[in-house]
Amino acid sequence: MRLTNQVLRSRSERPLSTVEYLDLSNLGIVSLGERLSSCTNLETLILSGNKLQDAIGVDVCGKQLWHLDLSNNWLQSVDGLSRFLALGTLVLSNNDLDWPVLANLTHLHILSLSLHGNQKLERDPYYRIHVIDCLPNVWMLDGRIVTSAERIQVDQFFKDSALKERPVRHKLRKKFFVTSTLQTIERHAVCGRKAIQMLKSYPKNGVCNIEMDWNRLHYLAKDFQDDINLMWKYIRRKSRGQFVPKKTLLVDLFEVRQNHGERCNMVLLLLMASLEFLFPTHLLKDTLETGKLLTIGNVQTMDLFLLPRTLRCKVVSLLFCAVKVDREQNEDGGLYMKLYLCLFHMMSELTKLSESTAGVDQSDQDSKLAAQLQDYKCLLATEVAQLMCIVPSFFDYLDRDVGVMNLMRVATADPDINEKLTEICGTKSEEGEDEEEVSGRKGYRVKEKKNEVLRFSSF
Questions:
Q1: What is the DSSP letter of 31?
Q2: Pick from 201, 225, 251: which residue ends a domain?
Q3: 47-76: string of b/e by CB count within 10 Å (b at 16+)?
Q4: What residues form DSSP beta bridges with 295?
Q5: Which residues span the domain enclosing 365?
Q6: For the chain, percent helix, then strand, then coil, each to nearest 5?
Q7: Cα 143 from Cα 313, distance rounded (Å)
Q8: Strand residues in 155-307 grouped as ranges (E)
Q9: pLDDT category, 396, cuts 50, 70, 90?
Q10: CA 101, CA 172: separation in Å to the nearest integer?
Q11: Quick one: pLDDT at residue 440?
């Protein structure tokens, strides 16, 4: 179908000239035309799950556009994006883009770009290296920050490759033909308030170093927070009476992380596990409280676990990016190398799942990669099981919660582990015991149960 004014009005609760957030996903749209020209104040536009083959018509919706989701379409061209100077979030995952198309994005400053799921791009074994080489102004690619050190490594990769018998060539020539539109982009660009603010704060020829990496991470946290606040503003009618996140949650989290890196990394492990295994809210709260993680500085960490799944993926992505920058400063933050690699690969898979309508097709993964991911999932499950087994309420879920049962099965590679643990741990208080005896026995039994979990867990 073609986009019509009737469709626009049905998806907007306000006059089109004032709407800031517009969700046009999964409508079967094949063409935008000029219909978005009336949305002059639009900041977030979601067009995922349609049948668009190009992005023509996106640039007419006004200068304020900052978050654009074109995932899960049939895109073969991004010509409609060439008039923008900067975007906060650009999601182009799960389309049909090829390398020459990226020439239209080389000038574009993008805080967070998603390109995974474009088979013509991803089938290249040096996919990430080539994207970083082609797009010099991207801060975060597929959920992982592009650090200053990584850009140096990419430059060195091509220099080293040039000396080999069969060198890896650049996908785009450094001095390729530039259209007249791109030559005059600064005079005719679509550049709104947020774009101007970002370009002033981070000029194109600014110094790239570890300090810049941290500054960009904090800026990304603030930008993602703005996205969350805007989204909540437009879905508040549906979420009335439900949890509403603090308006500075991510910004506060990154502020306290400077002095509480290891505790934030523990929260990162639990967040990732909550996305993978779906734990009961009560158990998560008990785990945070027992581990002295419920409050870090002025951040109520339980609020992070109450966010919708897609937003939790964003939080995981940001926290992992901070870990990546830590490691480039030779700070492990309590995460040994194998656990860091576990988070690295699992975060990539979670990002793909969060931006895909069909999920990740396991048949498309080679057997070696699938086995490696299973090993990492086992490692994550083992680490989290060891953390949760100090929580008394954890043992109440061993035989009645799917998420907890799955966690233990993966951690031990034993399909019958929950029945075994339930049988071992399932003793009852004896009749006639006074309150002090029951309390002491309860503490002793928790220790017993913890030892059984640790004995069964695989390391």
A1: B
A2: 201
A3: bbbbebebbbbbbbbbbbbbbbbbbbbebe
A4: 300
A5: 210-456
A6: 55, 10, 40
A7: 9
A8: 295-296, 299-300
A9: confident
A10: 10
A11: 41
